[in-house]
Amino acid sequence: MIEDELIKIWQSSNNQERLKFEKSKLMIEMQSSLERLHRWWKFIALLDIVAALIAIPAFTFIAFWVPFTTSKFAAVLIIIYMLNILIRLLGIKKFKPSDLEGNYLEYLNKTRRYLEIQKNLLVSSVYWAYLPIYPILLLFLAGLWEIPSKRPLIVIIYLAMVAMSIYGYFLNKSRVKNEINPRIERVDELIENLKE
User: How far apart are the C-alpha atoms of 129 and 166, rounded to whole Å?
Assistant: First the structure.
């Protein structure tokens, strides 16, 4: 009964009202989609914060405890590396748009910029997150290479880091392709619809 009445109202409404309804439907869908993406990004940032809170004190201790100079130097570089990752990931937070600012078109433009920044960060992560850790880790493990019983463990740790980096690279690439790019396209579509 109610469904029939809604159909009649829909059919009797003019095209301008239908367009308003379609726009509001697109806005609600976009908001829901962006909230999921924001939760995912917040989770990634939380994981990196926890990793840094574990790694920084651990490598500070290692820098004082390990007798090998190369490992001490590498431990300090790992601390700097972790701080760099935290600064990059948490620096994006300032670009996150607020629901309460300006009109909806401004919100969408700021959201698009935020998504582009996330995309660029994920695409460039191979240069600032994955490649810098290899020489640092190699330097760290080179000092431990002096202990013959630790050599198999060193090789396993290094290969595990390579495998994790490859997995992270392809995961980021997939996220950009399947999550961020479609949202950017939808934001662009919604911006165009609102400008009409």
Answer: 11
CA-atom Rg of the chain in angstroms: 24
Q: Which two tokens stand for residue 129?
A: 């997150």
First-last CA distance in the chain: 35
C-alpha–C-alpha distance, residues 94 and 92, integer Å: 5
| pLDDT per residue as tens digits for the range 127-164 | 998 999 999 999 988 887 888 888 898 889 889 999 99
Residue 44, classified by CB atoms within 10 Å of its CB into exposed (0-12), middle (13-18) or buried (19+), is middle
Nearest alpha carbon to residue 74 among 13, 11, 139: 139
Provide DSSP, 56-103: HHHHHHHHHH---HHHHHHHHHHHHHHHHHHHHHHHGGGGPPPTTSS-
Encoding tokens for residue 22?
Answer: 């379609």
Please report, for the chain, the start and end positions of each structural domain, with discontinuous segments joined by +.
22-195
pTM for this predicted structure? 0.76
No. of H helices and E strands in the chain? Answer: 8, 0
**Tokens 């994006």, residue located:** 92
What backbone phi and psi angles, to 5 degrees, belong to 2?
A: -65, -40
Looking at residue 4, its amino acid is D
Q: What is the DSSP letter of 147?
A: S
Place of tokens 């159909």: 7
